[in-house]
Design brief:
By secondary structure, the chain is an alpha/beta fold. The protein is 38% helix and 21% strand. The longest helix has 17 residues. This is CTP synthase.
Length: 230
């Protein structure tokens, strides 16, 4: 209802707020949750939980990987503001799994450009490689008027840097993202970009969406690049 980034796997069942003590049978399409005093609003004539309450419920019920995508998009779309978001989990009474909400809310960042990047940050945090910064720019040495913006950035103890690049299929096949160039041209540009960053003493590690489902493999790749681990 709010147009937030949500994985298709969570589109069903639709969650329905029910009064405590009301016993309604759940189905694959509908799931009922008891809530004594729900914060609500109306969208298109439909009564729904208010934005902050919706975000809180997502953060308490979903893995960090998926809740972070929802929270980031709420900030990016300016549905909520960061200070209000950060304070909200402390105001909810009788909440289960509050710590999960506090963790997710503290990590939410409007700079995350899409749901895939948000999911990646969630997984990176869970496997012990939390991102130090995101959407950082470096100058292009070949074309001074251009910049290279990296998805994620880590700084090692010795001051050297590692840039994380999250690659989705759209990056290579969506005309809006490739400036209508063919795949070979896009790949060549990516190689030139990576070489430019390496000339500036910035190592590059590339991550793909399917690797988010193989965290051990992803962790091995990050370790090989000496990405800081906690």
């Amino acid at each position: 209802m709010y147009g937030l980034d949500c994985s298709y796997r969570f589109l069903l069942p639709i969650c329905i707020v029910a009064k405590p003590g009301v016993h309604v049978r759940n189905t694959p399409q509908l799931a009922h949750y008891a809530m004594a005093y729900p914060e609500t609003t109306a969208i298109g004539g439909v009564t729904v939980t208010a934005p902050l309450r919706t975000l809180f419920d997502c953060a308490t019920r979903l893995p960090l990987r998926f809740s972070l995508a929802i929270l980031d998009s709420a900030l990016r779309k300016q549905i909520v503001e960061q200070p209000t978001l950060a304070a909200y989990p402390h105001t909810v009474k009788y909440a289960r799994n509050r710590q999960a909400a506090l963790r997710a809310f503290s990590l939410a960042d409007a700079r995350s450009e899409n749901g895939g990047e948000s999911e990646a940050r969630g997984v990176l945090t869970e496997i012990g490689y939390p991102v130090h910064d995101l959407q950082i720019t470096f100058p292009c040495l070949t074309h001074p008027s251009r910049n290279h913006r990296v998805d994620f950035l880590w700084v090692r103890e010795d001051g050297t840097k590692v840039a994380g690049e999250f690659d989705g299929v759209r990056k290579y096949v969506d005309p809006d993202m490739t400036s209508r160039q063919d795949i070979r041209a896009v790949v060549m540009q990516e190689r030139e970009r990576e070489h430019c960053l390496e000339q500036q003493k910035v190592d590059v590690v590339r991550m793909f969406y399917d690797e988010l489902n193989r965290p051990n493999q992803l962790a091995a790749k990050l370790e090989a690049k000496r990405v800081p681990h906690v």
